[in-house]
Fold Adenylosuccinate synthetase.
Amino acid sequence: MERKLVILGAQWGDEGKGKIVDLLSENYDVVVRYQGGSNAGHTVIANGEKVILHLLPTGILHPHVTGVIAQGMVVDLEVLEKELEDLRKRGIACENRLHISDRAHLVMPYHRLLDRLFEKKRGIGTTLRGIGPAYMFKFGRKGIRLADLEDERRLQSLIEENVAFVRDICEKVFQDKHDLNTDAIFESTLERYHRIRDLIGDVSSFLLKTERSLLFEGAQGTMLDVDAGTYPYVTSSNSSALGLSNGTGLPPKFFTDAYLVGVAKAYTTRVGEGPFPTELKGEEGRKLRTLGGEFGATTGRPRRCGWLDLIALRYAVEVNRFDGIILTKLDVLDSFEEIKVCVGYEYRGERLEHFPASLKVLEGIRPIYRTLKGWLASTKGARDVRDLPPRAKDYISFIEEFTGVPVLMLSTGPKREEFVWLRELPGIRVSCS
Ligand code: IMP
């Protein structure tokens, strides 16, 4: 079995990573989230119930799994508390098997306020969870880490300094109202900290020393990575494999024997603003949205939908050096007579074969499509490769040829048991309960 498995989003997030991580967690002892925060919404259907996790690693739903919130994450203590409480009510206790890095930064109420203000001015369509401002404070050296909470005087002066700064921005720059109260923020932060204090520690050295098997659970997707993605229409962390080392605090060499898998939908979606070369604004886009139930797990926003962009997917394969792909939601394409896939871009009369960095170019490109015949048969809930129509297999082979990596598994519905292995990963077992 691959002792270190990394599962990442290969598109603009919402690829269905939650279900895949849940499925594969059975084989892993430790599941690690290492970037982002409660902007993620990982949906799992477990025992017939829908669970959406924002901060906790999805693997924590399995009682044998130790969950890790590593240093690259930004943690909203209010959300964390609610999530732990929600799981407790469902009979899942995880406090004794959760480790949170003392180097992780906090998302504070004033970060959520700033997120809202920035969005008003020049919005990119964030989740309004305070993620961008929390990382701004981190990299601007104004952040508060969990390790800072033990020193109450220091915490108080950090909060005072931050609140004064945010108040100024709010009043002087945005002429906006706020209800920031330093004492209330200090007290609630401290209270919440005391309730989870025992879970906090040096998780990087735990991960470095452990002999147990590790699954790294990415959030968002490669095209939302702050460096590799469609900047500035991205999230504020490295949501591709580029973030593995700094997000976990583990040296790059630690990952040389890791197996990396990208999760991609059989078509493309994105939420929020930003370039989306294969977006379908008309009837076909609406059909994909309806059939795919494409509404955000965190914000409920309708997702923009379009054909599979193989230039973007191949770029994601390169950036992450994926060993393979897991393809989700193939069944959404079941009723399309023709299915298009983007195999190039045209820009000012020239053909581009590579995903460009420039926003100007991205705004001016036109996708070049290859049209494939639809299979017009149900793949929903398929459990065996022999259940797949030949044209659905052709679609998968086309993706493999174009990206140069194998499609390892198909997810054929939201339930745990709805999947097909196309090429089994050595030693990975999956039961369907
Ligand atoms: P933020 O991460 O809330 O700052 O949002 C930045 C961009 O990333 C916006 O376009 C969001 O819609 C997008 N985004 C953030 N998290 C997710 C996610 O989990 N799935 C899909 N898109 C996301």
Observations:
- The longest strand covers residues 338-347.
- DSSP finds twelve helices and 20 strands in the chain.
